[in-house]
Amino acid sequence: MLEEHDQKIASYTMIMAPRKRNRHALGFLCCFGGSDLPEINLKDNNPLQFLEFSVPIPPAEELNARFSELVDELDLTDKNREAMFALPPEKKWQIYCSKKKEQEDPNKLATSWPDYYIDRINSMAAMQTLYAFDEEETEMKNKIVEDLKTALRTQPMRFVTRFIELDGLSCLLNFLKSMDYETSESRIHTSVIGCIKALMNNSQGRAHVLAHPESINIISQSLRTENIKTKIAVLEILGAVCLVPDGHKKVLQAMLHYQVYAAERTRFQTLLNELDRSMGRYRDEVNLKTAIMSFINAVLNAGAGEDNLEFRLHLRYEFLMLGIQPVIDKLRGHENATLDRHLDFFEMVRNEDDLELAKRFDLIHIDTKSASQMFELIKKRLKHTDAYPYLLSILQHCLQMPYKRNGGNFQQWQLLDRILQQIVLQDERGDDPDIAPLENFNVKNIIKMLVNENEVKQWRDQAEKFRKDHAELMSRLEKKERECETKTQEKDEMMKTLNKMKDKLQKESLELRQTRDQMNDLVAQLNEFSHGGSISFPPPPPPPPGGPLALSSSLMSENLPPLPPPLPFSSCPPPPAPPPPPGGPPPPPGAPPFFSMGMPPPSTTTFSSSGTSLKKKSIPQPSHPLKSFNWAKLSEERIHGTIWNEIDDLKAFKVLDLEDFEKMFSAYQRHQDLLTNPSSCKQKEMGSTEDLYLSTRKVKELSVIDGRRAQNCVILLSKLKLSNEEIRQAILKMDEQEDLAKDMLEQLLKFVPEKSDTDLLEEHKHEIERMARADRFLFEMSRIDHYQQRLQALFFKKKFPERLAEAKPKVEAILLASKELIRSKRLRQLLEVVLAFGNYMNKGQRGSAYGFKVSSLNKIADTKSSIDRNITLLHYLIMIFEKNYPDILDIQSELQHLPEAAKVNLVELEKEVNNIKTGLKAVEAELDYQKRRIRESGDRFVPVMSDFITVASFSFSELEDLLNEARDKYAKALKHFGENEGKMQPDEFFGIFDTFLQSFAEAKQDLENMRKKKEEEERRARMEAMLKEQREKERRQKKAKAGSISEETGEFDDLVSALRSGEVFDKDLSKLKRNRKRSGNQGLDSSRERVVTKLNY
């Protein structure tokens, strides 16, 4: 009867009010200083049936004393205690009697005290090291642990107190430390974690767990298990501990402990791996991923993260470096509301922190992946302050830091990073919110800790030996590779030239035969005419190679042997074509107009000076004045023969929305101050000091050369690492073995013996053994006939392919860019639309234009909208193209060679080509001289340079022909766009189009960013509305289920539940939304907000 009565007695349950997070007070629960106190409800669906007890109700004073003892054991808060004492005396007595009866039950006497559970768990820990449990024993052991978990939740306070006094927590922690693999993967492991969680659900037990020096560290070790339920339970405990006063730093210490325990490369690595796992049973395990994200949010935003921006940025950077952003993007695919809630909170807080950091530098966004941008910000902030010299000192010492390509010395940079972390994070009292990475700043000790110097020293000598051997082998290999590469290149060039010469010879032979046949026909007809016949002249043959002189000479030498091949150098280019005839002279002053002879002037045509008629434009008129487009209008007489003859801007008016255009570019506008960013002047100071130390000469050395020149010559010879005889042989053999590099030859040309040097050295030639090194080198080189000319020819030969390879792409760029501009249909269509808008906007002298100068293209972006200062005429044109002319958006694909052509200076290019031509002639002259003289043994100048001249002359003739063609095409391009020939260089002309295309691409990207920003804002608005609706729904459900919550629910459980669902971050979410709404309008006109969800690290 008593048991039945006990079931009817109300089980009291603590129903926690909705918790709101406070940045400064952690007001999640009443026990943590919150203002929302819990209330006690009686779950009593049936009215109490009063029983008649054998013991009558004692007096009120005695009843209250006994009932007070019972309430004290329940560890209730003040408000709940008041609610209990407010019960009627009958209910107080019933609760008291039922609890006493339960405690005196003989069946529960053994399990009513923690001694029993502690002994059994110690026994389990000892036995699991001896033998493995079978399934039945495992089930029995698990039941014991589960019973302890239930007892810790339901037994009176004295049970928990006794459990703490008997060091039951250490019993559980020792079990976790000593369990084998099978136990760690079983339900027993989960139950033991549940016992710790139940103990922490009590205020006294929670304080005991947090006070234990190793408890949180040992709990974190359970993350190593593959048991998902265990992982979730551990993460919930760690996340909740972050929210408890003084618990946050313990969790960070535990994660550092787990890094060593699990041999992680860096902290939190296991968590990110678990979050990213998508194979096997982890693929759809959303609960685990939700627990990890809730833990990450708690670590970032609790404790020091509540009001310390630097700490949040520091800790978040660890997760970003581990690749959390791509993982978050992938987790969106689960479409789980709770998980998405945590993902949204992570991104929204990150966005808020980035904005707050950027505001410190008066920016909207800082690209923390750009070293150059961050450096410029620091430089700008510290310049003209007392801290600037120290910044320069830091940079100077960073330049002196050891550096190796294989990253062998990264520990010094790691040390510098840790020192900076500690400087940034430490507060005024010297406390570090994170685990201090350095205990002291003794650099020597830290370096010893990071690098085992003894091991390095052991292998240093052997590594040095290997390095020298490797360097020597690499030097020999590079020499052979250069030799092989040169020979292969020369062979390929000769074969290519040979094939081209064969083709050219065949073509010229065919033309020669055709010309001779035609001459024979002409001679026969001439003979026939001389005998009185009539002549029928065939069409004139094409002129033979060499121009009209060749034709006359061929007529005179009909029976002569075939002509030799043409010279390798082409003759001077033909004179330019005469300019087109100028237009008619202007009418004399006071002359009547052209249409003033009694006839009204026609309204449809106008005449240019060239005699061609231009159709008069019928341009629509705007309803009110518009902004002007500052273009340079072409005069009508310059329209003939240009691209503007083919353009009809009136067609564009049929598809353009002129009403919308008038709104965007109205002349009536509200005055707005232009925001200008002063450009910072970058000063580059370069300087170097060269200290040369004169080596002490031997006492008996003979030196007649200037000391400074001799010293520099010795330095050069030491770099060559060749003897004088080896250098002499290399020059005689034209360096067939590639001993002399191009740069060394260039330096050798600086030390050619002069006439005065040669005369002095000849006087002392009998003392050659006493000569200093530089003197002897110059003496021996002076013995080579035409030493300077040989050296110059050899240097020209080595440099020729490089100079040709540099000049040819520049010529091709001008040629191809000119062709592309003339052929581009997209450019023609773009100019047509720009002309239409320009005529629509401009009035008076600037209006009714038939064309404009191409330089006006780069002024399009100067015209800004009257409605939105961020929108320019260029942005508007692109929007028109997207709507009506989508093909124009890909205009860059038709003008691919513009960027290269814009870099070419034609004057410098022609100068370089002339220099190559001059060098070839000098080599030919030296070759003629060497052919006439008697060659000494080993002299390879004539055969080597003869082959070179044959190939080089033909290659250069191709370059000259290509340059002439490029000049012609460029002139046509200038005329095509109505520009003056000879007044605009290619770099200026092509640069105009290249700059416009860059601005075009930037404007396209601006519009894309604006669209993304708008879509992101709309997505966030929808997301916030859904979150708001979901929270309201959850509140209604909780309110409806308030009466059914179990009495086992405690404070720590409520905290874990709030963390799991994300309710603990509700207040922060609301605050971030309000801040974003306030700052949304402020940042609209000044810059573009980045899309946070697309950032990847």
TrEMBL record:
Residues 593-613 have a biased composition (Low complexity). Transmembrane segments: none annotated. GO terms for molecular function: actin binding; small GTPase binding. GO terms for biological process: actin cytoskeleton organization; negative regulation of oligodendrocyte differentiation; positive regulation of canonical Wnt signaling pathway; regulation of non-canonical Wnt signaling pathway; Wnt signaling pathway. Residues 1086-1097 have a biased composition (Basic and acidic residues). Residues 530-626, 1028-1047, 1070-1097 are annotated as: Disordered. InterPro entries: ARM-like, ARM-type_fold, DAD_dom, FH2_Formin, FH2_Formin_sf, FH3_dom, Formin_Homology, GBD/FH3_dom. Residues 616-1026 form the FH2 domain. Residues 1047-1077 form the DAD domain. Residues 537-547, 561-592 have a biased composition (Pro residues). This is Dishevelled associated activator of morphosis 2. It comes from Anas platyrhynchos (Mallard).
